[in-house]
Amino acid sequence: MITSIFSKSKPINIILIVVFIGLLFIISNYSSLFIDLNSVINGFAKLILAIFSIFILDFIISKNILTKKNSYAIMTCGLLFALFPEVLKYSDLLVSNLFILFALRRIISLQTRISIKKKLFDAAFWIAFATLFYFWAVLFFAILLVALIYHAQNDIKNIIVPFVGVLTVAILLLSYNIIYYDVFLRDSNFNLNASIDYTAYNSKENIARLTAIFVAFIWILVYFFKTISDKNKKLKPSYFLVAWSAIIAVLIAIISPVKNGSEFLFLFAPFSILMANYLELISERWFKEVFITLFIMIPLISLIL
């Protein structure tokens, strides 16, 4: 039943996911949401960022034909918000993720070979901006490098353009600091902290949901690379970029200084696209239902634990 609802791309499906995330946000932040007007405004801003990221993900998929005409990806993204509701508490992380989605939109659209330099500039610009809000988003420059190899390595100007995008953000940052703080750089501009201490995961709740997400991730990624040869030749680079984005997102989670589930936010978009492609290839309807039902049950089980 669940997969049949989302097996087609309909406006009602996005509305369902938006309502779901809205309810999830209120439930997970209820104790701190209605303290005063300021907390309500901040909370509403975070919710808007989360919902907007769903719309951007759907736009990226439909514009670049990364899945068939279904809503499996946004469904998966909504379930990931339920699995890791902590992401809804960090505005900086949500903003950084949104900028990374803007960058991925430009990077993946390089497959059209139209306005390559403009897209490379935009992608570097957005990744650099994302880094200001969450430093380890800088690792997504690796995706830009992979995109250059696939689409634009023969023109030296294409290699220079991303540096111009980064330089533009650097100039804007320096100008802002000089005008408002009379310094070039502040310590708060970049948080270089990292951690490989995973003791925070040592609870039944975290073990349950992390086991589920990593087993699913490895299984889907292996299946994805096994079937990549069957994809449209023109679209193969885009699928590879999505897969590499997922791997980069996992690396960010591994070194993130905060280990409470929010560090997986960057994984939501690429994992959702990979999951959608996986569900499209499964012919057994009952298996799809069981697979999705498990993803729905895991957040509930983790809460009970």
Structure description:
- The model has no long low-confidence stretch (mean pLDDT 87).
- With 305 residues, the chain is mostly helical.
- It starts with a helix and ends with a helix.
- It has one domain.
- The longest helix has 28 residues.
Provide the residue-averaged pLDDT: 87
Determine the structural class based on helices, strands and strand pairing: mainly alpha
Give the helix level as a range of percent: over 70%
Overall morphology: globular
Straight-line N-to-C gap = 27 Å
Low-confidence segments: none
Please outline the major beta sheet.
none
SSE topology string: HHHHHHHHHHHH
Hey, roughly how much beta strand do the residues contain?
Answer: under 5%
Number of domains: 1
Structure summarized in a few sentences:
This protein has 305 residues and is mainly α. It contains twelve helices and no strands.
